[in-house]
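pasting for ref
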Amino acid sequence: MRAIVSIFVIVVVVAIIAVATGFVNLHGTSGSLPQVSVQGGSLPDVKADVGHIDIGTTNSSVDVPKVDVGTVKKTVEVPTVAVHKAN
């Protein structure tokens, strides 16, 4: 393992010296970014059949405690919820 690392270090040092002294001359051309064209699009069209919920009140008779011992029947509004499935 130690020998492999030593050889790698020697190769890197020789490459740096070769470039620095001009023995190896690296030339290249600059690259360019790709040309991109954007055209208008459209959003996806989504249709959904969903159910609806009816919320309301109905009158119902419930036992309501009285201040003295006993109960009295009173009519009060009680909330209702009805859920209907989609067609």
